[in-house]
## 1
Amino acid sequence: MVARAWVDPEYKARLLADGTKAIAELGFTGVQGEDMVVVENTDEVHNVVVCTLCSCYPWPTLGLPPVWYKAAPYRARVVRDPRGVLLEFGTRVSDDVEVRVWDSNAELRYLVLPQRPAGTDGWTEEQLAELVSRDAMVGTAIVPAQGAAS
Amino acid sequence: MAVVVTKDFVPELVRTGGSTRVHKAVAPRFRVGDHVLVRNIHPEHHTRLPRYARGKRGIVEHDHGVFVFPDTSAHEQGEKPQHVYSVRFTARELWGSEASERDTLRLDLWDDYLDLVV
Amino acid sequence: MNGVHDLGGMHGFGPVNPEPNEPVFRHDWERRVFGVAIAGFGGGHYNTDQFRHAIERMGAVEYLSSSYYEHWLSMLETLLIERGAITKQELDARREQLSREAK
């Protein structure tokens, strides 16, 4: 989904306009993914998703959530100190970027569209997909820049 | 009425899920751009309104449409379908003047959780 | 309800400590609880809101000192009894039987 959005601007536009429909194009539908919203990381905004009240998570696209997502430390702290939590994941967000936390307290399920990393010009969708991690789609990680080919 | 779930039932169940979106024309109480005040309610029943947002001011960013209302649905009191909005709060509004002046948070809030700030 | 599950903003829980590559289910019983819980939902025994509220009613100490799928198990015990799918006597009897067999 992420790689498709990176290589196909029209798919990306559909994804951001109607997440449920665009994600369904790739075959991901169903339980805990019935109403999807995709939020885009940019140079100005870094998004991160949580469910403070329980463990709501987009199952059809990401599978079942990891223990850390469902446990008290993340749920308690990421809404109040997202930058501190992101540092635990090795992710540092610059002060001039807005961190935007999404608390999935209703039935909308959120996915982060991470930024396409530098050093991937000309890569195929398959190659790009290998770079994308689950954590980058929750917002606790970014997809790191790729070094120059040796 | 509960039914027995057999193996063949499962793939279709998982594939279609159980959206709580309600396809009924219900008038929204708010519009995008409205300034809202989250109600300071403390129900003993089920609610999806976290304590950290109660009494806080935010801005309606998006109308997600009409959904079942969990506060009644959890207690056999009907669906009471109403609009759910993505509401933006600044970190400082939620956590005080020591919080980041740039960061924000979004919560999805039902009509019944909000009042308009005029 | 103002339960301890409403964790947003609370202090004192320590570091997140994300574990890389954890298994989806740490124990087989978790996989079974997951399956039974989804089947219960699919079969109309409860809706998602009732599911969540049953967990919220666990009580603060119980909630914080048990694991995620223990929350789901507690939900099943609560809702299946409340909604008449099983009786408390049946549950207690089976629990006693299993604990005798385990000795």
## 2
Amino acid sequence: MTRALPISLRFLALGFLPISLALLAGFNWFRGGIAESVRGGLQQTLVESQQLQTNLRLEARHQRLSLLATLAENASLKALLSLSREASGSAAAQLTLQDQLLEMAASLDADLVGLQDAAGRPLAAIARGEPESPPASANWKAVAATDLPPGGARLATARGELFDLITVPVNSGTENLGMLLVGKRFELSSYHRQAVLLRADSTAAKAGAKVVAQAGVTLSEKQLESTFSSCGATRQCSVSLNGAPYLALAVDAKLLEQGYSLWTLHSVEQASSQLLGTATSGFWAALLTMLVAALLADIYGARAVTRPLVELIDRLRESERSGVLQGDFPETSSTKEVNELARAFNLAAAAVAESQRRLDETYLQITQTMAQTLDARDPYTAGHSSRVSDYAVAIAQAMNLSVAEIEIIRVGANLHDIGKIGIPDAVLQKPGPLSGEEFEIIKRHPVIGKRILEGVAKFRDYLAIVELHHENTDGSGYPWGLRGEQVPLAARIVHVVDAYDAMTSNRPYREATTTAQAQEVLRRHAGSQFDASVVEVFLRLVETGAIQYADADTGPQLAALKNSLQQKGSHELDPVH
Amino acid sequence: MRWWSTIVLCCALTLSGQVGEVTGRIRVTSTLTKRRISVPQVYERAAAIAVEPPPPADVGAELRRVVVYLDTPGLAARPRQARMNQHQRRFEPEVLAVPVGSTVSFPNGDPIFHNVFSLSKVKPLDLGNYKEGESRSVTFHQAGIVQLFCHLHPNMSGAVLVTPNGWFTQPAENGDFALAEVPPGRYVLVAWHKSAGLFRRTIEVRAGQAVQVDFEIPLSEPVSRK
């Protein structure tokens, strides 16, 4: 069994939650897309800037090459090479070469200057010492000629340092005299803050590369070598340094010596995180705003839907408390379904009222039938109930009671002896006089009648008549011995006319007294047994002829009374016919 | 030997009373030889280009580059032996004057090779590569200016002035010069500066008289050059 939930919660569960989940998912997806495109754009920019840098470096190299080619046309350079050929192995020649290289270096922006002969053998070289220590010109030192790489190398190690070399031929006519080598100290960090230079290691059993230089990387050479072993010959490579993802971009091989590879390292994550951080906070703010808006709209919607329903429910609760289902639910709500509901409730209320009415009617008919059944059981009292009713109504009218009171008296009087159903026939139809014990049984009929009618709410108004129509003014009556005003007027009226009709009717145990005798009895007991004012009204009505006793069998026939009854359209008062 | 013969000649001319004298002063008003200019190193962008203050005019050095002589053939010339060293990648002396027919030796005083050559019309020469302690000698048979260079060291520059006769001199430190025992006659007196060139004056030398000729280098007025 599912637990009942208020509509507003259902709204929240079915409306707000899916919306917020969809929003969240959508935003996340969007954010992921943005991050992807930012990273892609950044990567593209890095690749392009590296390409640009390569182009600039190549251009610079080319310009340098032209410049040095001009320098190679220097006659003294050619004279030097001729000298070295003439006097090879001479210390003086070596000194002459170095001396002249020093002279050239003074006007060259170079860190290494060297010469090779036509066969590629190194002749002499000098290198600038510590790059930072001034004066730079005074810091040149000879480099062991054997340190020089073979001609054409772009990278060379001399004196334990790496140099970026440019080699230009020195020609004389059609003859090559040798090569001029001009080098700049290789600055890895000039490529990028974080960079690694590797050289293919041919001595290793498996293909690998050894780290030659590294800048801005705090990893051991072994770690770097294993990291870059997976990159191979690609131009771009994703590597992980100290657990952080990096994009490694290969520098164009045209700038490098064969076998070397130079990777610049870029932390795309770090660069994009700031940009993404701004975007993300914006996203969250927008998401939060939208969620709050959705929540408010949802709450408003739930309220708008539930308010008319709650009103209906309140009315129903009210009906539950009062026991009356009023068929007046407003059908004017702006919600169609609520109007339908109200209409359904109204129809139901009408149906309930109709069935209630029919039920009441049925009860009346049943009791009427019961009264007639009673009359039929006792031929001596045949027509008694309807006569008592007629007399009582006449008195009530004469006493100017309200229409509602008269109606109560009419029906109540008709039913006043209904309790006699519970009295055994032996007692009720006994021809002789009743014993004391039998009379006690008879005296139980008002209470029995009350019990019969008690079960039906509609008969509540008649209970007093049924129960108390044998109480006397002086308290000598039964069943309770109430006095005077303690007994309602309706019961007192019925008491008088019941006694009169009983006296003027044949009974199993006696002959009917005459009307005059009965009137006398009434008059005598007025104030003690009967209510004096009721007796007075009744006697006056009898005197004026408004009530006539015609025949004990047929009961009173009274034109005026009959007319008034017919005017009411009542037919229940004609049980005799 | 040389000074001895000169004195004899001079005494003979003086005693005969047939000689005159040329004296004068060379005035150098500014540094004639421009200093070496270094190209700024364009790659050192942040480095300020140091502008060196102009050095004080080294008049003495300029005067050592001057030779005064009589540009007249037919006078007696006594050949000599002279030497021009190569020391610290320079010719020493930078300017050497010798009468025609003299022989000049070029010893290498540096620990490095030198290769002296000249493309002059007067005496083209190429002494080849030679190292410290070695020397080459050249005899100049024709008067004229012989500009000397070194194949290996383009910054080396020197000159040998081969005069047509024995009347030549180089000014003293104050610029004064004197040519003694000049036979009377009309001469072209030449003051030659290695960088500034030839400055000529026509003079008349009379016996027993001294001719005063001052040269201002460079000259303020245009020079007529033959």
## 3
Amino acid sequence: MAVEVVETIQPSAAATENVLLSVQNLRVWFELRRFGFGHAGYVHAVDGVSFDLHEGEAIAIVGESGCGKSSLMKTILGLYRPREGRVLFRGQNLHEMGRAGLRWYRSQVGYVQQDPFGALPPFMSVRRILEEPLIIGGVQSKTERIERIYKVMEEVKLHPVEDYLDKFPHMLSGGQQQRVVIARAMLLEPKLIVADEPVSMLDASVRVEILRLLRALQETHRLAVIYITHDLSTVRYFSERIFVMYAGQLIEKSPVERLLNNPYHPYTMALLTGTSEPDARNATTFKDVPPGEPPSLVHPPRGCRFHPRCARIIQGLCETEVPPEFEPEARHQVACWLYR
Amino acid sequence: MPVDKLLHIEDLVLYFRTTQGAVQAVDGVSLDLDYHRAVVVLGESGCGKSSLAKAILRLLPRNAGEYHGHVYLEGVDVMALSEEEFRQNVRWVGMSLVPQAAMNSLNPVLRVGDQVSEPAILHLGVSKEEALELARKMFQHVGVPVDFLSRYAFELSGGMRQRVAIAMALVTSPKLIILDEPTSALDVLTQANIFNVLKRIKQELGISFILITHDIATSSELADSVAVMYAGQIVEVSEAADFFAEPLHPYAQKLMASVPRLRGTREPEFITGQPPSLLAPPPSCRFAPRCPFRFEKCEQDPPTFERKGRKVKCWLYS
């Protein structure tokens, strides 16, 4: 009997214990102003997003520009305040942490920017760029700081370290710059890395190298990673689960391979059709892409936000009722009326 | 001199002067393009692919140094023309350019219709009304609603602005359009839409394209043939069907292997090392330091070898 009880209780207890970051019904709205003070509505950048991220888990958030993925990311980083909902990090509400709490939180979360050259101050050497977070993070001893810089630079494979320490960002190639950005994010030994399109500015031949580096770091340090991208083809090399975002909402959540081979949401299907693979036959065929463009987030469409562009619309339902999350398969959720 | 080709480029050279010496951005490029066809110039940043576009259209920056070679457009060596003749008879009329980030270079204070019709007024000498009519026609070809003619650039989305930029290159009915990274800043679905548009105008209007890009996967959407550029030189020219099935040059093979795929089990690879500086490129094969198949011969610069109608600049195929 006793054994049975342990067996039934343990998984659920372990599952909640393992949750590193919990995003609950998050809404981030930006107020529009008319003439500087009159209210003119809201941009519903993030509108009801919920997910749990477990320790050591890599997830990808895929969406087109303007779908709210950057607003979601910046709210998770504590740069925006949500209008509604909560972001819990190890059970603590990010927006009730206070100054000391936030400082601790920022040491736990690393941020890898999209454009490495824009993210590195041009007037600072690599040494200063990497030393600053340690100074702010309260590492007093200079020798310890230098030691940790060496360690992290070895880890991102910027060796021999001496060759790079006194260089300025413009003296490095794009791939090396991105390594410095990753080193900076790793310095304070975070538990979570938020990577915003970390390879979109890099050349094809370097891209894979950086993705592999991130993957290796993730595995050796058991890091949780939120990988934000618009490129579906890089996702499977990096993350276990994938969330598709459209017009401020997560419309499909699934393990990566399953989503790539068996997508449920019509928008996800369109994204997959739209993604090219190198194949000479492409030149003679036209792609079947949904008409129109993503909606304005000031007045998003009623009902399902994809319905004006959807070929499989159910008249009288999709344009009036917001689809809840259905689970046609275990661990695969989709917000679409087709699966009711 | 092959007259049956739309475009025949022979040994084109464009160097830039800098304080550290000449940057050999385009170094002896030869390329052919037939009527109604699209060639993709594939290369990574800094390989000189945008400079090649500039060299073909003679849009030279102030620090241009050495600049010679032959560019035959429908049999006429346009390099021999004077600047004024070139401007009047070649640019826009013979071939036009959709520059990189074209959608962000539209004039914000002009209505897009006026802007699109301007090249027609200047180069075809038509009246404003006729030019606007041409612009209207081109808008239909690229799939922009005609009432957008009276809008301003900021009122359009990125994809629409990119279509407007393409309409502008089309309005003078050139035979050839050079597209410099036409979709690199666009979303997946917008990108797929733009390529649908390009394919359609290729079929309907019989226009030829030079597509300059770093993105192998999307380049296959338009390519009839592929030219791979590395460190200022073209290292392989193949028909698209051959190239995407099996690239010949080691650099092209490596590049193809680095493309992430949606399906399949193959892990993508990366190329170690960096391209050589174009200030003083090595006298050897320029890819040799990074090449897995390197052997003694590679100390010398390889000529271009022919193999089953494909051209490849590599000693492996001697």
